Amino acid sequence: MKITSWNVNGIRSVLKKDALLPFLTENNPDVFCVQETKAQAGEADVNAPGYTEYWYSAVKKGYSGTAVLSKTTPVSVRNGIPDEIQKRFSMGPDAYGDPNTEGRVLVVEYPQVFVVTVYTPNAKEDLSRVPLRQKQWDPAFLAYCKHLEKTKPVVFCGDFNVAHTEDDLANPKGNKGKHGFTDEERAGFQAMVDAGFIDTFRLFTRGNGHYTWWSNFGNARAKNSGWRIDYVMVSASLKDKVKAAEIHPLVMGSDHCPVSVTLEL
What we know:
This protein has 265 residues and is α+β, with helices and mostly antiparallel strands. The protein has helices at residues 11-16, 20-27, 83-88, 130-149, 172-175, 183-194, 220-223, and strands at 2-7, 31-35, 52-56, 66-70, 76-79, 105-109, 114-119, 154-159, 198-199, 213-214, 226-227, 230-234, 242-247, 259-263. Helix 4 links the parallel strand 7 (114-119) and strand 8 (154-159). The chain starts with a strand and ends with a strand.
């Protein structure tokens, strides 16, 4: 099973650039997870041959949102973090809105695994959403993944809006303490690792220089002055089944590039 994830930063935009369908044809994933669709179902004509589309859009139009394109029909499709987990972590609206209505988590269940696509809230440049990340979102999302794992192994992927280690961004010293590289956000990611989930890319590739997002300013992408903030994580029980994990930096169309994993299930 090949699972590919891409923050497209607007699915209508990436379609207009004729970047999405050629990549799907070439990469040929069984499951294609999308973040930041910025569209409602029906507002973008993907029509990828051989795929069925599942959308979880934000209530606010033109904002956030996730989707999955699947070659096979899932056992089930689940939108959002369950109410009981939201309540456990008192996750509700803040000054920016309600993360529970922003289409940020979409789960598709297959016979052998759950596949989760996630678009994690940005901590914001002034760090005003760090408390949401630290106390509510990050622990709630982890709790949900562990809940799913009680039934079967989990693959979760998407834009986590954090560079985990200093190897995951080009300028760690200059960005320490800034949004995307605060101690709180990094600890939230580390908690997933401590809970047993595996960063698949790091099974095969070490060191820096491997990024998934680049600023639109300062010619950052050409200079490869980027951040690795898009990941594919798997349950520990899947570790030996991971046969490849890749970043696709040459794929254009978004300020993010796709990431993928191949599992032998």
